[in-house]
Structures are given as structure tokens and as C-alpha cells.
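EI: anyone free to look at a 261-residue chain?
SC: sure, send it
EI:
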Amino acid sequence: MTQAHTIVYGETEPAIKRGVVSFFTHRFWQLVRDRPRTLMLAVLLVLIPALLGALWAWVDPGQASLFAPGAIQAVTLHRAHGANLGIPTAQQSAFASTIFTHNILVALLAFAGGLTGGLLTAYLLITNGLLLGVFAGLAIGAGTESVFVQLVIPHGLLEMSCIAVSGTAGFRLARALIDPGPRTRAAAVSSEATAALELVAGVAVCLVVAGSVEGFVTPSGLGLGLDLLIGFGLFCIFWGLVLLRGAPSPSSADSAEHSPR
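SC: here you go
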């Protein structure tokens, strides 16, 4: 019986482990780079509303705060930077779990929004970018930029990067639905849905990291320098892996040239 189990299952677990390792060392980052124009569109749909939201909140904080009623209290309350937010340790785990569950739900909705022709995907990217900008603009207007750094930067740069990548997954699905090219619509949607789901799976893992930082690091009051180091460090690691590990191998690049988009 033991020999039979080894024959049947002996190679299964190592193969799964190799697949998981390969996914997070190459495949996921290659998928992020696979559609550069689509990725750029998703990034711009986050970045431009963020800039406009910041300008709006700085010029007219009263109206902008109506868009994000919780922001006015969160980021405009003066406190010594590095001050602990006072969240009990017992609650931090539940807080982190709630955060990354919510963020993963947003990522899944951005992916599923591809079935609406990308309209829901675009809406989610725009509203998330606008919310981030409003937070920043309210903080700038109130002179509490350091509070914004503490509350948003450690996790927010990685989080918004993940949301943009989730938007890429949704737009891939929308493109296949609207313009399947030489393939049948069913074949195009099936192919793109597989790649898009892989993107969302990788994003979900990254969002767990971002949610953990928000749940455990943000309330701790580590100080301005460490908050910036963590936030930009995670951001640089993410996009650095996209650049360094996401380059297609010569064989996959050749096959991509001859495959329909």
C-alpha cells in the first residue's frame, strides 16, 4: 500500500510546490507585464483621479469630505507623528483580517467587472484613486501630511498597485468579450479568464501583505522615516519584481508574437 501511494502520489506534492514557486518567482510577474498598455490604462485610471481628488480636497475640503466622510476625522486630526493609534493588540489581528478580506473582494470585483465590458472595473479604479486623493488633499489642507503618511503610505502604495493590476485582469476579460479577434468569443474569454484569475490570485497574496501592514504596522506609530521606508520599500519590491522577474523568456516571447491578442 505504501509503495502504491508513493507511485501514485509521490510526484504530486513536489510538482505542486514547484508550480507554486514558479508562479511567484516568474509567472505572476510575467502576467503583470504581459499587457503593458492595459496595465498603463489601469494605472492612469487610479493615478489621474487621485491627483484630481487631492486638488479638489485642497481647494474645497468641505465638499470633498462629503465624498469620504471618515477621511476628515482620520487625516486632519493633529497628533504627534509616531503616536500609537490606540488599537488594542487583541483587535489588530481582526482588523488586519477585515482589511485584506475587503481588499481581496475589491480585486475580485475589478476582475469580474470585465464582464460589464470593463465599466465596473473602470469605476472601481477611479473611485479608489479619487478616495486616496481626497485623503491626501484633506491632509495637505489641514497641515497634517505626516498623519496621512502614517495612515496611508505604509500599506497604500502596494495596495493601490494591486488594485491597478486587478483592473488589468478585468480589462483583459473585457477585451476578449468585446473584441475576440480571430478566436471565437467563448475561446477568447476562456483563455483570458484563466490568465486574469492567475493575476487575481497573485494580487490576493500581495493584498494579504498590505492588509497585515495596515493592521499591525500602521497603528503602532513607528515614526515618519520607518513609515516611508516600509511604504516605498514594498512599492519598489513589487514593481522591481515586475521589471526583473516579469521579462518573458525568449521562447515565450517568440510564441507570444505568433499568438492572437
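EI: The chain has one domain: 35-58+87-247.
SC: 👍
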